[in-house]
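FYI - complex with FE2/S2 (inorganic) cluster, inputs then prediction.
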Amino acid sequence: MPARIPAGSIALWRTQSGRVTASADRCPHRGMRLSHGFVRGEALSCIYHGWSYGQTGECLRIPAHPGLTPPETIRVAAHAVEEAWGVIWVAVGETTAEPPRFEGFVPLRSLTAHADLATLKAATGATAGTAGLDWPAPGAPEIRLLSVPQEGYETLIHVLVPGDSSPAQRIAASRAAETLRRTAEDIQAKGLAPWSTTR
Ligand code: FES
């Protein structure tokens, strides 16, 4: 699947054995997006001419030249990945610290807001910490939000709730997140946030 990190677009893929890999989303051959490709076993294959790549970015196979061992210079940039408590973390550059742990929480849903992070904070009164946005949502005080800036003014929001939440609490958390999105988008559209700029 395609995803975005501060270093740019990535193809996030899971091998048959279950390992998650984050590759730059550009095939070194002709530049096709690797997120359009497909996984076979432990490799990701480009949809265009079928070149396939391993988890550390090395080119494994060029179908048009089946007898050729691809040179080591043909590589895709790969980022370090950690998966914990249902959240996939992708490192940009060298990893200097462990990602935050959300022990006891489970991912509920993800949604995209047409608003930047500053506007989201203005809409919620949330504070940002190393463990995501701390937001005592009305009716769902245990909710945790993880925000991932996208292109332009979009922000991807991952909603996490305690694993022992009841169905009613999950519905409340989901609705609270939707209300948050609407409020933030209204503020962004009206340019009410003092730090928002025009498109
Ligand atoms: S563009 Fe990817 S294999 Fe040709």
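The radius of gyration is 20 Å. The chain has two domains: 2-90, 105-190.
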